[in-house]
Known about the structure:
The protein is of the alpha/beta class. 28% of the residues lie in helices and 26% in strands.
Amino acid sequence: xxxxxxxxxxxxxxxxxxxxxxxxxxxxxxxxxxxxxxxxxxxxxxxxxxxxxxxxxxxxxxxxxxxxxxxxxxxxxxxxxxxxxxxxxxxxxxxxxxxxxxxxxxxxxxxxxxxxxxxxxxxxxxxxxxxxxxxxxxxxxxxxxxxxxxxxxxxxxxxxxxxxxxxxxxxxxxxxxxxxxxxxxxxxxxxxxxxxxxxxxxxxxxxxxxxxxxxxxxxxxxxxxxxxxxxxxxxxxxxxxxxxxxxxxxxxxxxxxxxxxxxxxxxxxxxxxxxxxxxxxxxxxxxxxxxxxxxxxxxxxxxxxxxxxxxxxxxxxxxxxxxxxxxxxxxxxxxxxxxxxxxxxxxxxxxxxxxxxxxxxxxxxxxxxxxxxxx
Length: 375
């Protein structure tokens, strides 16, 4: 079938993106789903720094590629009969499907599944191959999803069924921002009631980490970001204190010898080093940001042993999507995860480059793109 999707043809575009136009809307051919796959109508897709990092070249992926990885969709067809999914099901898409068979999956660590990581790196679905093309040219999948589009074919392992009554612009955020940010606090750091938490970077993932810390009973919760509007949101959500930059003095004043947990979401080695520095002896530093591979982390090595500190890498919030998305939605329904506060705007897909500009300038937390299905 013919679909419309936002395609990246080259890495390294520079802002303003409304001028350089790194993403162009193209009419593509979408192949029918194979066994174990789903044909979807994309209902809404969030714009994330992980998308921007592919555009600017921090994360090199095979091109051409149809971008977008945080989304909610409706099932239009299945490649298997029977299937656990039915036509009309509403699904949130997870950007790292787990094979379910490897050692990591068997250990409950599907977020470290090597088969999924390899497929994402090749720009293919986890079951193998590519379902998108522009004439004779294959167009790669972004993280098995390619959600900046009217329609998509995904592996069933990339989909989590949800109730259809959740507004699509809210439901989309559970696929990355909430999964990653809340998961960094709940799964990776295992924050306990009364522990102190400092969060560096207040984009969608960082504010989700603030929400996760508050829902976990952390106290105090300190939020750090240079953008005043984002600090204001964190304060409205209930953060104990907000700070524009180096927060070491604030952390020292509000905690007993440093934070129990620091969460770094910026994707910069210097910020990660600062987060590590402000934790107490025995503290945990969780990093979810994805820096340019050329960046190197410099910290006092002796602290890892002498101070008993740990640094924890948290990919996708160490989440099991089929377990975590439903429970985070339950917290949202209970009013304990006000995800709607992360939503900056909804925009038509045609404005995707303008949305990248707003994200790069720090003018937006989460923008959700609404595709035109009249292809």
